[in-house]
Write a structure and sequence with these properties.
mainly beta; 28% strand; four-stranded antiparallel β-sheet; 2 helices
């Protein structure tokens, strides 16, 4: 298999070594400005999703995957991770 046929996951070009920041969206809130200004430490800001709803993974503004929040196994207590349940077709992303 030559380089033109390799999948992006196995490509050894320098581009594959560039780090990306992935943003995980767990939900959105749309408070009024007066509600936002009234927030104090300890206030609760309700989101538009339930705790068991999937989260969305973005690179920039592009949705790349969906998944479920979970706690890291054998990690520090409370450290979060995402188990991927759906991955976008990367041919459209790259």
């Amino acid at each position: 298999m030559d380089n033109a046929e390799q999948s992006p996951a196995t490509d050894q070009s320098p581009l594959t070594l560039v780090p990306l920041e992935i943003t995980i969206c767990v939900g959105r809130a749309r408070p009024l400005v007066r509600e936002l200004l009234a927030l104090d430490p300890g206030a609760v800001l309700p989101l538009d999703r339930n705790i068991d709803d999937p989260v969305e993974l973005f690179v920039g503004d592009r949705l790349i995957a969906r998944g479920e929040l979970q706690e890291v196994e054998n990690g520090p207590p409370g450290q979060l991770a995402v188990r991927l349940t759906e991955v976008a077709d990367m041919k459209d992303v790259l």
